[in-house]
Amino acid sequence: MDKHGKPPQKLEDLIPEFIASIPPFPEPCKVHYYLSADGAGWTLDLHWTDGRASLIDRRTNLGLSSEDAERQIGTENGCYVPKAR
After folding, report:
1. CA 69 to CA 63: how far, in whole Å?
2. Residue 60 lies in a domain
3. In which domain, by residue range, is 45 found?
4. What is the C-alpha to C-alpha distance for residues 44 and 60, in angstroms, rounded to an integer?
5. Is residue 67 part of a domain?
6. Which residue, among 30, 33, 2, has the nearest Cα to 17 in the 3D structure?
7. CA end-to-end span of the chain
8. What whole-number distance in Å separates Cα of residue 47 and Cα of residue 59?
9. Overall number of domains in the chain
């Protein structure tokens, strides 16, 4: 975002300037990337099941919603890990 003034429209737009390729994610992991309506905010969600519960590893420049903050079960390197909806 800093270099171009806005986040990419899709993750593939990062290739090859910032990353060589989008890495494969094992099943049952799912990846969701969203832009805010104004195009300045982004959220990247990695969904997976740890055998007990479905979890979301969320990275965002928008901060957590109050709903997600209530569900938050931990943090990792500034990444929020809320319980799945």
Report:
1. 9
2. yes
3. 25-82
4. 6
5. yes
6. 2
7. 28
8. 12
9. 1
